[in-house]
Amino acid sequence: MAAHHPSPLGRRAMLGAAVAGAGAAALLGTATPAGAVGRPAGRAATDDLRTPTIVAHRGASGYRPEHTMGSYQLGLDLGADIIEQDLVPTKDGHLVCRHENDITGTTDVADHAEFADRRTTKTVDGVELNGWFTEDFTLEELRTLRATERIPDQRPNNTLYDGRWRIPTYDEVLRWAADEGRRRGRPVWLYTETKHPTYFRSIGLGLERPLANLLRRHRLHRASAPVILQSFEPTSMRRMADLVETPRVVLFSSADSRPWDLQEAGDPRTVADLITRRGLREISAYAQGIGPTLDLVIPRKSDGSLDQPTRLVRDAHDADLLVHPYTLRNENRYLPAEFRRGDDPHAYGDVFGALATYFGTGIDGVFADHPDTALLAAADFRR
In this structure, what are the phi and psi dihedrals at residue 252, rounded to the nearest 5 degrees? Predict the structure, then answer.
């Protein structure tokens, strides 16, 4: 392989020496050299980030209501390499784990008569929403709510766990990861997203500084920390780069979409501009990876089947960037047409075939709602 095209081992090493030295630093609180990101760390450093790396998307969200401690714990117990969280703020500035600040469909808030007057209409990133929002509740108030399954019609089995868990704070998740790490004798990796950072900054609830403060409090602000930060807004990761050394990833939606921070700044660039070779080189100045939608890796034809792979993975690797696309789900409705089985959109399709195809493009990992399935496919691919 050419020198300018780093091996998967080298790219994984960029994200920190999780086992050789850095893992011990994360567990024991010992000092780690600044600027470790980007430096070769040796083969042992990649043990906690196998390729392909399997990220439990919002936890094991195919089996439990997303962003609950039950979902996170199951993702870890199933063997996922990294557990993902999304962060939104409360009215009093605490960071909690929800995919969206709109909690209408992921909690029992509608059943709480005392909060009926909190229902409102807001515009978030240009989208008008009606419901209940985390930024209108204190943490104490949010703790009275219980989490529910977001898509009950598609995943009725998950509704068994409705009401079992409350909304976790990020501080609770960090403490859970530290406890599990000590118990297992290895770091527990987290993948943490700042949600709608420009919107929250506009209402005085910026995410980056509180997140940086929490990472520092838990000694996870070094380049060797077993945490990856992520955002759909590139400027959020730029801000985090100024606050902590924790590894960072820029997320990409469809090619013709435009990150909200760029829209607000009057920057005309779309995702298509950001994923050019030049755009990727610019991103590599403040981030260690990208998280594109799977359709940016292999587009779909008009009939829903896969087309030919793009050059995104190759170009990203040339820029020394990891590639962790999202999201692989087992259900037919989410799979490319050729991997669907039967007519039931909620039934499982040939997810192993789909994953083998995506892994064949050279991606470094994938976000998956069903991490156990993805882990089996990753093991098959390594063999």
Answer: -130, 135
Report the phi/psi class of residue 362: left, alpha or beta, with left for phi > 0 and alpha for psi in -120 to 50: left
Q: How far apart are CA 85 and CA 230, in angstroms?
A: 10
pLDDT tens per residue across span 62-112: 999 999 999 999 999 999 999 999 999 999 999 999 999 999 999 999 999
Secondary structure class of 227 (helix, strand, coil): strand
The 10s digit of each residue's pLDDT in 265-281 is 999 999 999 999 999 99
Tokens linked to 292: 């594109």
Stretch (H or E) spanning 212: helix 208-217
3-state secondary structure 237-288: HHHHHHHCCCCEEEEECCCCCCCHHHHHHCCCCCHHHHCCHHHHHHHCCCCC
What backbone torsions phi and psi does residue 2 show, to the nearest 5 degrees?
Answer: -60, 150
Residues with Cβ within 8 Å of 137's Cβ and at least 6 positions away in sequence, in order, are: 90, 91, 115, 118
- The Cα 222–Cα 215 span in angstroms is 9
Task: Read off the tokens for 63.
Answer: 């089996």
* C-alpha dihedral, 64 to 247 to 318 to 258, nearest 10°: 70
- Say whether pLDDT at 6 is over 90: no
Q: Classify residue 311 as exposed, middle or buried by CB count within 10 Å of its CB (0-12, 13-18, 19+).
A: exposed
Q: 29 phi and psi, to 5 degrees?
A: 80, 20
